């Protein structure tokens, strides 16, 4: 099939590259000229494991452009993959979606053949049917399900593992109202052997929010248990293992620590809370998950202060800035709260991350010292905070004679540390 992808961020570019790998012809669209140019040279504009190699591999079948209308006209299916950032009161900001829909609508107006529009961006329940559909119809002057198809097909890709997740999904959710849209998507995903769930677009939207909310709640749950374990002198990781072996609970997403960050969990839980409020429902569990997560990063600084006393003028090393390993993304990363707290307390902060330094520099400028290696960063302080569990931080020699405050349970850290305070507070 000929596929156009609107928005070449983590979701759009990975989706485009994977569809190209599956022998489709793909046009990736972005408003950022530099990004487009990089993609056309086979270079990923951001770090995602395996993406550079994949882009080079599919160079003949994947092109990038800033011209959205031509991309739509010259394809059979368009995936909307633009961001839905957090708005002023926590709602999902749909302005990029609306702008993409206007351009797609203009293109549909000029196109005679049938076309399928698929919403992949994470949007609140009801958006595809009540905002996107009317907008596409108004601009194109055409009728949905007759002149063009419409579907909602959420992604469940983890950053750092996105290609693997795309190629081996647990399930594919297809939100549709008409048979033609359904058949096209089933054809596109025909090589995937996982369960394919056919639901309405609104249900598909809710499945995405509910999945992310559940995972976020699971993390906040184990962090709450971890906080209690700390007070009781129990290792929360042993507890997590004990409960995770129960098949009804499952072992994943039970790693206690400084909490979840990233572009999805914090934003999507907030957007779901906002949607609930619009309907006069007060979501107690969702609010609690966020409340626990807000406080969690500061607990690492509390532990440090308990040992080091007043931090004014003291050197502190932070290992890891990305919100998790294998990505350069620092959006909503716990490192931001931790570094801010350290600076407010007057500490001299030395940081190192294998991939996220440039993104962090944009936030903190010259307020902190950026080091070239973990070893260099550690050499500058007596106190070391582990904030992201990158593999290279598993070199236990790093922690020899150091005071280590581990926010992510890097087991190796405790072996040579002079003083080790693990993730369970
Ligand atoms: C998430 C979802 O997993 C994915 O399905 C969705 O499409 C997008 O959002 P992502 O944000 O890339 O993916 O990362 P994920 O691996 O889910 O981790 C999110 C955060 O939770 C990270 O900060 C991570 O460190 C934290 N986390 C995860 C924990 O603190 N404990 C855990 O047990 C698991």
Question: What attributes does this structure have?
Answer:
alpha/beta, Rossmann fold, 2 domains, 8-stranded mixed beta sheet, 6-stranded parallel beta sheet, 16 helices, 14 strands, binds uridine-5'-diphosphate-xylopyranose
Account of the protein in words:
About 45% of the residues lie in helices and about 15% in strands. It is of the alpha/beta class and about 425 residues long. It folds into two domains: about 1-200, 3-Layer(aba) Sandwich (Rossmann fold); about 200-425, 3-Layer(aba) Sandwich (Rossmann fold). The strands form two sheets. Strands 3-2-1-4-5-6-7-8 form an eight-stranded mixed β-sheet, with helices on both faces. A six-stranded parallel β-sheet has the order 11-10-9-12-13-14. It is globular. It starts with a strand and ends with a strand. The protein binds uridine-5'-diphosphate-xylopyranose. Uridine-5'-diphosphate-xylopyranose (UDX) binds near residues 255 and 324.
Quick structural overview:
The protein has 425 residues and is α/β, with parallel strands linked by helices.
Topology:
Blueprint: E1 2-6, H1 10-21, E2 25-29, H2 33-40, H3 51-57, E3 62-65, H4 68-73, E4 77-80, H5 95-109, E5 115-119, H6 127-140, E6 148-152, H7 162-167, E7 172-176, H8 179-188, E8 196-199, H9 201-232, H10 236-244, H11 265-278, H12 284-308, E9 315-319, H13 334-344, E10 348-352, H14 357-364, E11 369-370, H15 374-379, E12 383-386, E13 403-406, H16 413-416, E14 419-421
Parallel strand pairs: 1-2, 1-4, 2-3, 4-5, 5-6, 7-8, 9-10, 9-12, 10-11, 12-13, 13-14
Antiparallel strand pairs: 6-7
Helix pairs in contact: 1-3, 5-6, 9-11, 9-12, 12-13
The structure holds uridine-5'-diphosphate-xylopyranose.
The site of uridine-5'-diphosphate-xylopyranose has 20 residues, from helix 9.
């Amino acid at each position: 099939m000929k596929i156009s992808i609107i928005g070449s961020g983590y979701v759009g570019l990975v989706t485009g590259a994977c569809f190209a790998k599956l022998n489709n012809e793909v046009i990736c669209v972005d408003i950022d000229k530099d990004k487009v140019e990089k993609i056309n040279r086979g270079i990923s504009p951001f770090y995602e494991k395996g993406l550079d190699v994949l882009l080079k591999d599919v160079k003949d079948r994947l092109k990038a452009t800033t011209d959205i209308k031509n991309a739509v006209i010259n394809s059979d299916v368009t995936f909307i993959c633009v961001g839905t950032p957090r708005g002023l009161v926590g709602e999902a900001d749909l302005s990029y979606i609306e702008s993409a829909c206007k351009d797609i609508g203009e293109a549909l107006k000029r196109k005679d053949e049938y076309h399928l529009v698929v919403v992949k961006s994470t949007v609140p329940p009801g958006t595809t049917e009540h905002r996107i559909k009317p907008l596409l119809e108004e601009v194109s002057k055409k009728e949905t399900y007759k002149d063009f198809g419409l579907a909602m097909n959420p992604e469940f890709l983890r950053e750092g593992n996105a290609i693997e997740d795309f190629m081996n999904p647990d399930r594919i959710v297809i939100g549709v109202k008409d048979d033609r849209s359904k058949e096209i998507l089933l054809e596109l995903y025909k090589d995937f052997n996982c369960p394919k769930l056919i639901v309405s677009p609104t249900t598909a939207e809710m499945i995405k929010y509910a999945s992310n909310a559940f995972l976020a709640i699971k993390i906040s749950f184990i962090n709450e248990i971890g906080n209690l374990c700390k007070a009781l002198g129990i290792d929360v990781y042993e507890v997590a293992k004990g409960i995770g072996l129960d098949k009804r609970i499952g072992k994943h997403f039970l790693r206690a620590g400084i909490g979840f960050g990233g572009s999805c969990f914090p934003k999507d839980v907030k957007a779901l809370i906002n949607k609930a409020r619009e309907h006069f429902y007060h979501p107690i569990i969702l609010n609690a998950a966020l409340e626990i997560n807000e406080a969690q990063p500061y607990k690492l600084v509390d532990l440090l202060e308990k040992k080091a006393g007043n931090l004014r003028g003291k050197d502190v090393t932070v290992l890891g800035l990305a919100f998790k390993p294998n990505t350069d993304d620092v959006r909503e990363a716990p490192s931001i709260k931790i570094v801010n707290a350290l600076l407010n307390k007057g500490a001299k902060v030395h940081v190192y991350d294998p991939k996220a330094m440039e993104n962090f520099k944009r936030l903190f400028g010259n307020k902190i010292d950026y080091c070239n290696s973990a070893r260099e960063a550690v050499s500058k302080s007596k106190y070391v905070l582990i904030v992201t569990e990158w593999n290279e931080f598993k070199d236990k020699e790093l922690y020899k004679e150091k005071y280590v405050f581990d926010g992510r349970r890097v087991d190796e850290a405790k072996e040579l540390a002079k003083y080790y305070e693990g993730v369970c507070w």
